[in-house]
Each structure stands twice: as C-alpha cells, then as structure tokens.
Write a structure and sequence with these properties.
39% helix; binds 4-nitrophenyl phosphate; alpha/beta; single chain; 161 residues; Rossmann fold; four-stranded parallel beta sheet
C-alpha cells in the first residue's frame, strides 16, 4: 500500500572497468526487463577506473542497446565508491578484475551482496563478461546477450526475495 519510496526498492549497481560498455548495457537491460515486469528497482552502473567519468556510453554500446529497443544515451560514467556498498543491495561485477577491485574497496560496514553478473545465469557461474571495447561490433551483440541473461537471472533472484 502507498507510494513506493526509493528505499523500498531493491537496488542494483553494475560495475565494469570503464563504465562505458558493459555496465551501462547491463543497467539498460535490467531497467528494461524490470519495467516490462512491472517491478520497481533502483539500477545504476559505475566503473572501477576514472577515465570516462561524465561521458556517455561508447557509441557501439548505445547502438547495440538501441537495436534491442533500449535507450542508454542518457547515462553518464562515474567511478564506484566505498559508499556504494551501503547504498545498493547488489553490487555486480562484470569480470574477475572488477570483482577483485571491488573486494578491496568494500568497507567493513558494506551491506551489499557482491557477485559476478554471470553467477546469475544457469551454467555460467564464475564466468566473466568479456570486454568488447577493443573488438568489433559483433562483440557488442555478445555482450548484450550476456548482460540480458544476467539481468534476467538477477530479476528472478530479486522477485524471489
Ligand atoms: P567497459 O569497457 O569496462 O566495459 O566499459 C572499457 C572501456 C574503456 C576502457 C576499458 C574498458 N579503457 O581502457 O578506456
């Protein structure tokens, strides 16, 4: 009953290296799936690096998301902080390097559950979403498929409470 306040929503933060390819695609995919399912979520993304702070997603990431009906053009890069571990329920790393950096950043009072995105996909636990940045356009389609599968698994986990 009543209006759902932001704090009532499960909150998910996706983290990759640059915050211009994989994690904004994951953010767009989860927001899209949650919207279709009518589930209120708070979704964000960040990078472990600071090179692309304030920048929109890579144009190839934007184009791939757009082909799948999702607009991520309004997102802007930011760097992950220790406080994110208190502000989100799930902090989700895209690969093992990100996961290691997040473990090192996590404060003692951090409450977020830390996982790899593909831990939420049956048969793919422990696997990384490969960085498409230095590859061709086809890599971005693979990334989209993987982040969508991961987002769907996370949404199932959140629905089960
Ligand atoms: P992302 O990809 O981590 O998926 O956003 C990258 C984007 C930029 C860089 C590395 C990875 N970079 O080195 O600038």
């Amino acid at each position: 009953m009543g209006v759902a306040l932001p704090s009532d929503r499960a909150a998910v933060l996706f983290v990759c290296l640059g915050n211009i390819c994989r994690s904004p695609m994951a953010e767009g995919a989860l927001r899209h799936l949650a919207g279709e399912a009518g589930i209120a979520l708070r979704v964000d993304s960040a990078g472990t690096g600071d090179w692309h702070v304030g920048e929109p997603p890579d144009r190839r990431a934007q184009a791939t998301a757009r082909r799948h009906g999702v607009d991520i053009s309004g997102l802007r890069g930011r760097q992950v902080t220790a406080a994110d571990f208190r502000r989100f329920d799930h902090v989700v790393a895209l690969d093992h390097a990100n996961l290691g950096n997040l473990r090192a950043l996590r404060p003692a009072d951090g409450t977020a559950r830390l996982s790899l995105l593909l831990d939420h996909v049956a048969g793919r636990a422990g696997q990384a979403v490969a960085d498409p940045y230095y590859g061709g356009d086809a890599g971005f389609e693979t990334t989209w498929a993987e982040v969508t599968a991961g987002a769907a698994g996370l949404l199932d986990l959140i629905r089960r409470g």
